[in-house]
Amino acid sequence: MLFVARMDVVFPESMTDETKADFQVKEKAYSADLQERGIMKGIWRIVGEYSNISIYEVDDLDFLHATFQGFPMFAYMNVKVTPLAKHPNATTDDFFRQL
Amino acid sequence: MLFVARMDVVFPESMTDETKADFQVKEKAYSADLQERGIMKGIWRIVGEYSNISIYEVDDLDFLHATFQGFPMFAYMNVKVTPLAKHPNATTDDFFRQL
Amino acid sequence: MLFVARMDVVFPESMTDETKADFQVKEKAYSADLQERGIMKGIWRIVGEYSNISIYEVDDLDFLHATFQGFPMFAYMNVKVTPLAKHPNATTDDFFRQL
Amino acid sequence: MLFVARMDVVFPESMTDETKADFQVKEKAYSADLQERGIMKGIWRIVGEYSNISIYEVDDLDFLHATFQGFPMFAYMNVKVTPLAKHPNATTDDFFRQL
Amino acid sequence: MLFVARMDVVFPESMTDETKADFQVKEKAYSADLQERGIMKGIWRIVGEYSNISIYEVDDLDFLHATFQGFPMFAYMNVKVTPLAKHPNATTDDFFRQL
Amino acid sequence: MLFVARMDVVFPESMTDETKADFQVKEKAYSADLQERGIMKGIWRIVGEYSNISIYEVDDLDFLHATFQGFPMFAYMNVKVTPLAKHPNATTDDFFRQL
Amino acid sequence: MLFVARMDVVFPESMTDETKADFQVKEKAYSADLQERGIMKGIWRIVGEYSNISIYEVDDLDFLHATFQGFPMFAYMNVKVTPLAKHPNATTDDFFRQL
Amino acid sequence: MLFVARMDVVFPESMTDETKADFQVKEKAYSADLQERGIMKGIWRIVGEYSNISIYEVDDLDFLHATFQGFPMFAYMNVKVTPLAKHPNATTDDFFRQL
Amino acid sequence: MLFVARMDVVFPESMTDETKADFQVKEKAYSADLQERGIMKGIWRIVGEYSNISIYEVDDLDFLHATFQGFPMFAYMNVKVTPLAKHPNATTDDFFRQL
Amino acid sequence: MLFVARMDVVFPESMTDETKADFQVKEKAYSADLQERGIMKGIWRIVGEYSNISIYEVDDLDFLHATFQGFPMFAYMNVKVTPLAKHPNATTDDFFRQL
């Protein structure tokens, strides 16, 4: 099952640049692992914003929530999740290639 | 360049079921052609809504607008377009397989 | 997997009372069937509105969309779907009794 | 009488992880008590958010407000309450089993 | 238990002035009855709008929904209901006199 | 003349519990005085929120603003004021009893 | 007492140009009368919109609502009313000259 | 040319009462000067809010922005500006008297 | 003085394609004239929408409103106008070439 | 390809005036460079707000995002980007002169 998420990151005023950089390193590793395991099917930056659009394939909503909660920056993210179904006009069941 | 669109369809009260069905046939063919030509990289139904999330790869904004305007149901759609850039945490430049 | 939906019904101005009543009869049968099959776990009226809050248990998002699309009044509904996960403070995995 | 609530938790920037953890322990106990007493009929996490959807059965609005105000994290919650009535298409008066 | 409602009336374009006037006569009678029975504790026009703010005292949410649904103009109203509890700064349990 | 207000209280993160409690004592006295003088005709808690709905009878808008500005917690309140007129379906000019 | 209103006019699709022109003639006469009587202190077009910002001086909210309801186009207007008080930085109690 | 502005003031949590009072003194002088020079044609408090509605007559948008930016509290204001044109139903070109 | 406008076009359901095409021809001529006279400095389609972003240079707000009202499709447009001033980081007073 | 952006600047409460001034100097240099290189085609202040409307010509969305991210104040900006296409009523392909 596919879900698309929009994630907006807002860091608190008091966070140092070092802490931010450290979060970004951890975030990158976490995202890479999700991609490698085929959970995160795609992730893109929204132009001009500290936000992403990302797509997830999971079997289970508890697992999906755990996936979001596991993001190192989760406490600083607003996440909005939209469940997706097959569109009648899609010519394939799977648009994504194997990473 | 990638763009994600959200399209919401609202048919007028006076439209007959025949006209709607005819639009849907034309829409399916138009979407299939966009997918075959690699312009529409993916399309999904938003669960519970007469709406889709779709992703487009184009070289040019005039072409992109023409692509939207060419949808048979364009006059009955609200389309919101978001430009996407490569995300630093993406492990690939291209998540989509060749249809 | 559980999903909560809010459905708002808006009938077009031209619809006769007979057509509305006919829709309501069909809707009642459709909802009863979903309840009997354990797909619709609960449905409540939002006080003062022609709207409901309802909860669905399904294994699959395509099936969930098909369930919504199957509502006789689907063309006159705005449906907003929210995916639900187990809450850490829940004392049970299943709050609903078998209908 | 049933009410559905959506609760969004926002902790202040200055709160330590220890304080947060302490709040979560107290919150869990408070929620368990409400469930045991049949006041909270269900509680679910909204996928991707630090939020819940929960359903309450109470006889009295003063009691309901006191119930919300009693949550250990109440000062850090935005709570929106929606009153629910029996839906004409519901096949039962009570969807919830006895916890 | 007290609930405050905001009701906005929107008549369809096709409704004749006679039908509107007829609705208003029925609405007045219905409101008077609710006031006499102590269900509607107060009703006021929002200045400049075809809207009201009204307050209801009821024992039961099903009865409250039935009360709203019984308004002759219900199909042309948007109703938003807010549940009210005793305020700690209120000097009385009941602000309303017996009509 | 009657006005209905919705007041939402948001205390700053740095305010101590003692200061909050002190504000609440002063607020209670201020509200009691307004009720005794017949200026505040009613005040109710919105269930689940740190908010109230309150109704004011005043002769003058400058006096009304001064009344709001006089609330001890005014600096921490968002206040939205709606002017009310007699509703044609009201069976009385005055729903409120003398406190 | 002063109130500022924003009025947005939306004519139904079926209204003929003749009817619109007739409404506009009546509206002009009604507005002129309000200005002459010192009730409407000012009226301006919002640039680019079929909307106005207008200011009213009245002694009474019932009279103010009656004034709005008396506009020939009232049924086609959305009116939002904001009550105004003297500003501490105003150098006069009355900015408006006698028309 | 006339413009109407709505200004909402939000002071930061850390600002002392002395600083606030100092700002208010400077603001009063600045507003008085604008009124004397015929730039600010009127200013009113929105009842219940730390906000004003004010009207400006200027020849130039750069000058208008400089006027707003010159407010001592500018850094703590949200300002929304609406351009105004003569309304066809206005009986005069100038509603304001000379201060 | 420069103003940026966003215009959204919504045609009524009953308008024929011939009428729409006729409006578009008149609109094109009207826009060309505004560009030739240096009033409309630029106009662009918002990708995916029946909307434009356009920039106007005028000396006067009455003239600006008359310019908008003169658009053949004005009755079917929602127009939002934003006044613009010179930005301190602009390296020129005039970004536009003479058409 | 052209994109229009709206940028709103919000500095944190703790930032000193010196830091703000330093940011503004760097921002001015960065903007000047973008203008000289023909990337930023125009930039204007929104009257009354700490915001700008600016137009960008770029070949690539990654480059566009990098351009936004390169603004010295990027961490304090909300940026909303809208893609633009040629409008059928435009009399030229390029409204902007060479800076």
TrEMBL record, chains A, B, C, D, E, F, G, H, I, J:
The keyword Isomerase applies. Its EC number is 5.3.3.4. Transmembrane segments: none annotated. Pfam families: MIase (PF02426). Gene3D superfamilies: Dimeric alpha+beta barrel. Residues 1-89 form the Muconolactone isomerase domain. Pathway: Aromatic compound metabolism; beta-ketoadipate pathway; 5-oxo-4,5-dihydro-2-furylacetate from catechol: step 3/3. It catalyses: (S)-muconolactone = (4,5-dihydro-5-oxofuran-2-yl)-acetate. The keyword Protein biosynthesis does not apply. Keywords: Aromatic hydrocarbons catabolism, Isomerase. InterPro entries: Dimeric_a/b-barrel, MLI_dom, Muconolactone_d_Isoase. It is an enzyme of class 5 (isomerase). Homodecamer. Belongs to the muconolactone Delta-isomerase family. This is muconolactone Delta-isomerase.
